[in-house]
Design a protein that fits this description.
alpha/beta; Rossmann fold; three-stranded parallel beta sheet; binds glutamine; 509 residues; 23 strands; globular
């Protein structure tokens, strides 16, 4: 699978999460569009940098080839040079798969997308007409006033696509409500697409329901027959039982995510999906409460009703004091805590402040002048420029057998994905360990701290890496799974003490 993003960035690394949503990190350290996270969760395969292509990557390759003189004096043009490079990168991403799905982002008619549309049009000539299927996603609005579905916007976008030389083979029809047969007749006639090739995708209770709806509509068979592939019937038993579980009525827990990018739901997409997967595993629903970290700086009030606290990754000083306060609150009040990347760094800062008796202890990212920089850039990283000094992608770690995390993973060697610049400062390791901090995992050479925990706490685990990227809807990540288990346990203990004795029931959304 591959996401093609027509905007001019080289990758998603420098994009603002509040505008663009989460940066998803692949095992080989690619900083990509969040759609890759969806792809991995749906197909349960690890993807690589090659699965994320943006115009910046295409242009930069073409321009560097031009500087090397590889075009032998030719004028460099969008067609054929840019379009050829787009096709090359699609073909190279396909590797040895039988079928490659390349999603071109944006809307037909976007200036930036034109070269991409032209490239996929040419693809037909390059790999043979019988080997290409064009699938177009359209939206059909429902007009409540006149009680009718409007197919015109969809017809217009198909017309625009045809103008660019592409006749769609398949239409995926997004709508808020199930679309009626009349609208389908119209779509088939005006867009010139067989009825069997029009897939209805009305809003679903859960995004994980979508593959089941698609299969029910028979589109899998249609694709196989068009591409002349013989395929056995897919076994969707596990997937169906996941969806049944998601839809069932179950008790609910409340997890506070202490965050500063509050304007965009997608900023912590993989974290939210990992939390949900862990909750479903324990037959629970999860209510995720966003807690504005800048408000905690003023008061702990927003933390009082939470069953568990999660501090996700983040960059920069804004709101960090609130995150430190939240980790302290979880530590002191025995509330299950899961820290992810910055969530580990703030937990270290909180504990160090207490142990060292220095409320100014900090990360050098937040205060380069702090006396005790318990999180810092390692000396051999200092002179590397910003992009270069990031620890990105998979790194192996070894677990301490006496830790909570070892119980969760059930093994000593793990591989997890990273995206950070700062590290635990080893000058403080001994002091903090003596005071009760558990170093639950380190890099294989022992030099980099990968997980910290607190003893005598129901669950206080914080990792320097991002476990959320490896969680799957039906296979929650062990740290998320055990975090939620601890929340569930604590909540049932509390409720057995309370008068009504039940965990609050929550209706499915
Ligand atoms: N800002 C911190 C660092 O660069 C944490 C990064 C993160 O949470 N992904 O080390």
């Amino acid at each position: 699978m591959q996401k093609c993003d027509p905007y001019l960035n080289m990758d998603a690394g420098t994009l603002n999460p509040s505008e663009h949503g989460e940066v998803f990190v692949t095992c080989d350290g690619g900083e990509t569009d969040l759609d890759l996270g969806h792809y991995e969760r749906f197909i349960d395969r690890e993807l690589t940098k090659k699965s994320s292509t943006m115009s910046g990557k295409i242009y930069s390759k073409v321009l560097s080839d031009e500087r090397k003189g590889l075009f032998l004096g030719k004028t460099i043009q969008i067609i054929p040079h840019i379009t050829n490079e787009i096709m090359n990168q699609i073909i190279s991403s396909a590797d040895n798969s039988d079928v490659h799905i390349a999603e071109v982002g944006g809307t037909v008619g976007d200036y930036e997308a034109m070269a991409w549309i032209e490239a996929i049009r040419q693809m037909k000539r390059k790999v043979g007409e019988e080997n290409v299927l064009y699938c177009h996603v359209v939206y059909i609005p429902y007009l409540g006033v006149s009680k009718e579905f409007k197919t015109k916007p969809a017809q217009n976008s198909v017309r625009d696509l045809r103008e660019a030389g592409i006749q769609p083979d398949i239409l995926f029809v997004r709508s808020d409500e199930p679309v009626n047969a009349e609208a389908f007749e119209k779509m088939s006639l005006y867009c010139d697409v067989e009825k069997d090739a029009i897939v209805a995708l009305p809003n679903a209770v859960s995004v994980y329901e979508v593959p089941l709806r698609m299969e029910e509509g028979g589109i899998g068979n249609y694709i196989c027959s068009r591409l002349e592939i013989s395929c056995s019937k897919p076994n969707l038993k596990d997937w169906s039982s996941l969806v049944d579980k998601i839809r069932s009525n179950k008790p609910s827990i409340t997890i506070g995510v202490i965050a500063k990018y509050m304007s965009n739901e997608d900023t912590y997409l993989s974290v939210f999906e990992a939390l949900r997967a862990a909750a479903w595993h324990h037959n629970l629903d999860v209510e995720i409460i966003w807690v504005d970290s800048e408000r905690i700086e003023l008061s702990n009030k927003n933390l009082e009703d939470l069953d568990g606290i999660l501090v996700p990754g983040g960059f920069g000083v804004r709101g960090v004091e609130g995150k430190i306060a939240a980790s302290r609150y979880a530590r002191k009040n025995n509330i299950p805590y899961l820290g992810l990347c910055l969530g580990m760094q703030v937990a270290v800062i909180d504990f160090a402040r207490e142990v060292l008796g220095d409320e100014e202890a900090n990360s050098s990212e937040m205060n380069p002048d702090a006396k005790n920089k318990v999180i810092y850039i390692m000396p051999d990283q200092i002179n590397v420029d910003l992009g270069g000094s990031m620890r990105l992608g998979d790194y192996e770690a070894k677990l301490n057998k006496k830790s909570r995390s070892y119980l969760a993973y059930g093994k000593t060697k793990i591989i997890e994905r990273h995206r950070h610049r700062y590290e635990f400062n080893n000058d403080y390791r001994e002091t903090l360990e003596k005071a009760g901090l558990v170093i639950a995992a380190t890099s294989t050479d022992g030099k980099l701290v990968e997980i910290i925990e607190h003893k005598d706490h129901p669950f206080f685990v914080a990792s320097q890496f991002h476990p959320e990227y490896k969680s799957r809807p039906d296979k929650p990540h062990p740290l998320f799974r055990d975090f939620v288990a601890s929340v569930k346990h604590r909540k049932s203990l509390l409720s057995s003490k309370s008068t009504n004795g039940t965990i609050a029931q929550k209706k499915p959304q």
